[in-house]
Amino acid sequence: MTGVPAKAPVLELADAHTPDEEFTEVWTTGQPVTVEQRDDVVCGHDGEYAFCAAHVPAAARYAEPVRDAYLRVLGTLADLGYRRVFRMWNTIAGLTEANADGLEVYQDFCLGRAEAYDLVPTPPEGLPAATGVGSLGEGITFYLLASRTTEHQAIENVRQLPAYRYPPRYGPRPPAFARAAVLPTEGVLFVSGTGSILGHETVHAGDIDAQCRTVLANVATVTAEAVPDAAVPLATLRNVKVYVRHREHLERVRRHCDEVFAADADVHYVVTELCRPDLLLEVEAIGVAAKAS
Predict the structure, then answer these.
(1) Which of 45, 100, 132, 181 might form a disulfide with 50, Cβ 3.0–4.6 angstroms?
(2) Which DSSP helix (H) or strand (E) runs through 112?
(3) pLDDT tens-digit profile of 99-126?
């Protein structure tokens, strides 16, 4: 975070290797925005929705500082009246490297997040959609969207075990997020970062084409749950981020994505590390969902 302008919080992420890979993501509202900054927590809110972010500096161990940072953010949101968190992003430097105790940094992060949720109980049906990917910067930066009164519907994928039920082989505490989240009153779908995972295991290790097909099938499954009447669920997605581990796979991934996403969809590609060494890509998206009448 590099300062807070008068009208909106600004968060700068280190995820572009070259200037031509840079892009700006802007969240807008038709209502006046109030900006708050409390220590390392920055928040912009409009009376119904809030954007909030914080940064955890590089550390030998992350569980405790991640827990404390999450609690500061959730506490700030609670004080402001925005208790319903429905979408989160986490960018984590060195996420598959080992911490000072030999625990994978991503697993260390998941431990801290879970401990925060223990203290601010969040039932599985209330978990937000989330993404966790690498960063070219240092430490961990996370940001989220929350609402004051709008409740979201968490969606799981029948092809995958819910992440919060992963076995202990993935760390001392499992990841805590839903595969997707829908705001029924707004008719908006948020698809979490989605990898080539069936059940709880990575499939097609080393095969970028097969992993891409599996990822897109997983995204289509949760999208169809939110948009049951769509003839082509993936065509309903409007904003897509594709995270690719190896730059040499970019063009092959683009070809797969061009075949399934709408021609006018806004699709951005980011080369970055992913939460498992054998995952070659992840896809997240925002789309149109069935709107509650």
Answers:
(1) 45
(2) helix 105-119
(3) 999 999 999 999 999 999 999 887 667 8
pLDDT above 50: residue 27 = yes
E strands, the chain, in order? 34-38, 41-45, 49-56, 84-92, 129-134, 140-147, 153-155, 180-183, 188-194, 197-198, 201-202, 237-244, 266-271, 281-288
Q: Which of 104, 156, 282, 284 is catalytic?
A: 282
What percent of the residues of the chain are helix, what percent strand, and what percent coil, each to the nearest 5?
A: 30, 30, 45
Give residue 9's pLDDT. 82
Domain coordinates in residue numbering, the chain: 19-288
Other C-beta atoms lying within 10 Å of the C-beta of residue 127: 25
Class of domain 19-288: alpha beta
pTM over the 0.70 mark = yes
Burial class (CB in 10 A: 0-12, 13-18, 19+), 82: buried
Distances (CA, A) of 167 to 171, 252, 282: 8, 33, 21
Model pLDDT for residues 234-258, shown as the tens digit of each residue: 999 999 999 999 999 999 999 999 9
Mean pLDDT, rounded, for 30-37: 91
Burial of 196 (C-beta count, 10 Å sphere; 0-12/13-18/19+): buried
The confidence band for 2, taking pLDDT boundaries of 50, 70 and 90, is: very low
What is the spatial distance between Cα 207 and Cα 227, in angstroms, rounded to a whole number?
A: 30
SS3 155: strand
C-alpha distance from residue 206 to each of 39, 246, 290 (Å): 43, 11, 36
